[in-house]
Amino acid sequence: MPVQKSTPLMEINHISVAYQDNRSILNDIHLTINQGEFVSIIGKSGCGKSTLLNVIAGYIKPKHGKITVQGREVTKPGPDRGFVFQDLALFPWLSVLDNVSFGLRMAGVSKQEILERSKEAIRMVGLSGSENKSISDLSGGMKQRVAIARTLVTKPNILLMDEPFSALDEQTRESLQEELLRIQKETDMTVILVTHSIDEAIYLSDRVAVFDDQGGIHNMIHIGLGKPRIPEIRVSSYFNEYKKQLMQDLRYDFQIQYESEGSGI
Amino acid sequence: MKKFHFGILAVPFIIVVWMLAARHYPPIIFPGPWRTLLELKKQLMSPDYYHHIGISLYRLFFGFVIAAVSAFVLGLLAGISKAFRQFLTPMVALFQATPPMAWAPLLILMLDLGNAPMIAVIVIAAFFPIVVNVIQGMERIKITHIRAAQTLGASRLQLAWHVYLPEVMPSAFTGIVVGFGIAWRSLVAAEMIGGSSGIGWLISSSGQIGNSPLVMVGIITIGILAMFFEFVLIHPLKKRFASWESKA
C-alpha cells in the first residue's frame, strides 16, 4: 500500500493536560501528523480525546509540552485550524450566507471577494440556493453542511472535527462522510476527527488513534483501504478486519477496568 | 368568516363601566366619557397640551437613552470580567429594591426643578432592569460561539460586536421592556410631585384646580403614549434584533 504524503505538518509534542486538582486528562501525547492526512481519534467518553482537539485549536493551554504547526507553536485559536463543533455553534441570528462569510468578514476582505468565496464554500457543501435561509429553517444535515462551509471559507490548513455527525441519522451521516472525503481531496486539507463510531473512523481515516482511559494513546492503526474510498468498502472483509481489531483495542480497556473493579471483592 | 375575537369588547366594556360609575358623581368630580371627549377635543387644539407632552417625551428620551447605553456598556463589561460582575451585583440588587420614585424628592433638591431631576429618575428607573438582564444574557452566551468566532479570526473587539452584542440582545430586550415601563410610570409620578411641566404635572395641577376632565385626558394620554411606544418602537426593534431566539 503506497503512502501518499509524508510531509510533517503538525507535531504534537509530549502534551499533558490536567484538571485543577491535578487529575490528568491528557497524558504525554506524542503524535506527528502529515499534510493531507486524515486522522481519527476514538475512545470512550471522558478519555480526553476532545481535550486534545481543544488544545490543538488553542482553546486550552497544555500543562506540559507544545504543539507546532509548520514549525510555529500554537498559542491561540486561529483560522489556520478550522473547528467543527459537536453542537455546530452556528450563529442563529445570522443567515446561512452570513454564517459562512463570518471568517472573511473578520479578516476584512473586500465585499466582492466575501460574496464569491462564501458562495463557493456553500456550493462545495451542496447548499447553493439556501444562502438567505435562516439557520432555524434548516434540517440537521443542512446545519452540518453550513458548519463545514463556515470553516472551509477561510481555507484552513487543518480541520478539527469534534463528533460532528453524532446527531444525524444513518443515511445523512454516510452521505456527509462521503462528501467530507470529497472536500478533503479537493482542498488537500488535513483532518483530525474525534468520533465514537468505529465505522466512521475506519471509513474516513488514514490512521486511527485509540485512546486509553488514562488520556494516553493506547494504539495507532494504519487503515490501508486505499484512496479514494468507495462506499462499498464499508461491507468488505478488509473493513471488518479493522473493525474487529479496533473493537478489541477498545475492549482491552474495558477488561482492565472490569478487573480492577472486581478485585476489591 | 374570521372567528370572533373577544378583545374587541374591551374598549366598549371600559366605556360602559365608566359611564355607570360617572353617574354616581357630579361631573365636576368625575366626568363621564362624553365630557372627557369634549375636553380632549379642546386640548387637541391647545399648544399647552402639546407642550407638556413634548416636555415629558423629551425627558423620557434623554433619560432612557442614557440609561440604556450605560446599562449596556456596564452589563457587557460585567459579563466579560467576573471581578467587575461581583463588584456590581450587590449594588444593582440594592438599588433595584428601591422604587425610583423614592429618589425624586432628593433629586429635586439636589438638581433643582426642571428637566434634570426628572431625567435622573428615569435613569434610575430604567438602568437597573436593563443591566441585570444584560448580565444574565452574557452569562448565557455559549462557549462554543465564542470559540467558533475566535477560530474564525475574530479579535476581542470583533468578538464583542459580532457575538456578545447580538447574543445578548434577546435578554437585553426583556430588560428594555421592563425598564421602559418602570421609567414611564416613574416619570409621570415624579412630575406630579415636583414638576412645573409635563403630563404628570398637567394631571396633578388640573386636579388641584378641580378640572377633572383634564385629569382624565391626562390619564388617557399616558396610556395611549405608552401603548404607542410599545407597539411602534419597542416591538419592531425586538423583532429586528431578538426574534432569532424564539426560533433557535
Verbal overview:
The complex is a heterodimer of chains A (about 260) and B (about 250). Chain A is an alpha/beta fold. Chain A has a domain at about 1-80 and about 160-170 and about 195-235 and about 245-255: P-loop containing nucleotide triphosphate hydrolases (Rossmann fold). In chain A, about 35% of the residues lie in helices and about 25% in strands. Chain A has helices at about 50-55, 95-100, 100-105, 110-125, 140-150, 170-185, 200-205, 235-260, and strands spanning about 10-20, 25-35, 40, 65-70, 70-75, 80-85, 160, 190-195, 205-210, 215-220. In chain A, the strands form two sheets. Chain A has a six-stranded mixed beta sheet, sandwiched between helices. In chain A, α4 crosses α5 (about 140-150). Chain A starts with 7 loop residues before the first strand and ends with a helix. The mean pLDDT of chain A is about 90. Chain B has about 250 residues and is an all-alpha fold. Chain B has a single domain, classed as Orthogonal Bundle (MetI-like fold). In chain B, about 80% of the residues lie in helices and about 0% in strands. Chain B is built from eleven helices and no strands. Chain B has helices spanning about 10-20, 35-45, 45-80, 80-95, 105-110, 115-140, 145-150, 155-195, 200-210, 210-240, 245. In chain B, α5 (about 105-110) packs across α6, α6 runs antiparallel to α8 and α9 (about 200-210) packs antiparallel against α10. The longest helix of chain B is centred in the last third of the chain and has 39 residues, at about 155-195. The model of chain B has no long low-confidence stretch (mean pLDDT about 90). At the A-B interface, β6 and α3 of A face α7, α8 and α11 of B.
